[in-house]
Amino acid sequence: MQQPITSLLIAASRKAVKFLHRDFLELGMLQRSSKGNYDFCNKAYVKAQDLLRNELQKYTSALFFPEDKFKLDNSEEMVLLINPLDGFSNLEKSLPFFALSITCLKKINQILTTICTVINFPAFDEIYYVEKGRGVWSENNTSNNSRLRVSGCSSVDNFLIATDDLNINPVFLKNARVFGCHCYGMLLLAAGKIDVVYCSSLNYTLKAGFDLIVREAGGAIINNDEMFVATNYELSKKFEHLL
């Protein structure tokens, strides 16, 4: 059973992605210029942002979006980190790899702690959520909720890596996949379909949620400073020296 805050975030995400799915289908049917596509998607981003702000400010005034300067007020009891559209360039081309993400931090013993994250993929009609101490779960309209776990791959010669940077160790390139959406790669890792995630640049609205996803899916974080690198425990022992 979901925590009440998780249910609220899922409901808010559903409201915000209804028109994103419509826009995705429309972009697939229309022939637009690159400039026209960008403007269309930018309007979609702003609309999703406004919808989420209006819906979520009922619960806290501490709402942070990707373009905001992230500065925490220690008096806040709850903070929401919101990414209305991860995978902007994919939506521009009517590719289905884009998502909306909301992460909730709540004060526990005077420390703001990540307690849940919700990620909604409008084009796939799929929602994923993670709760601290309760695991990572997928939810769609064709099956019951199912729990996700990282892969058991232990071979450095046979792993798949999702990355946003092809200027990585050449050893990785033959097994690299670039999706243009950090959330998509992250959930593939949690589901055991990708073995490593390597993000050279990750917006702060996603980092706390990704950290929780990896830990609750049974994975290991190798680097969470300038970059974000995560895998399963078996590969983590062999992978660090290859970075």
What general form does the structure show? Answer: globular
Backbone CA Rg: 18 Å
Poorly predicted tracts of residues = none
Profile the largest sheet. 7 strands, mixed
CATH class of the largest domain: Alpha Beta
What string gives the helices and strands in order?
HHEEHEEEEEEHEHEHEEH
Structural class, from secondary structure content?
Answer: alpha+beta
Might you state the CATH topology name of the largest domain? Answer: Fructose-1,6-Bisphosphatase, Chain A, domain 1
- First and last CA, distance: 39 Å
What is the CATH H-level superfamily of the largest domain? Answer: Fructose-1,6-Bisphosphatase, subunit A, domain 1
Helicity range of the residues?
A: 25-40%
Total strands? 12
CATH architecture of the largest domain: 2-Layer Sandwich
Strand content: 25-35%
Mean pLDDT: 90
Walk across the major sheet and give the strand order: 1-2-3-4-5-6-7
- Secondary structure tally, helices: 7
Number of domains: 2
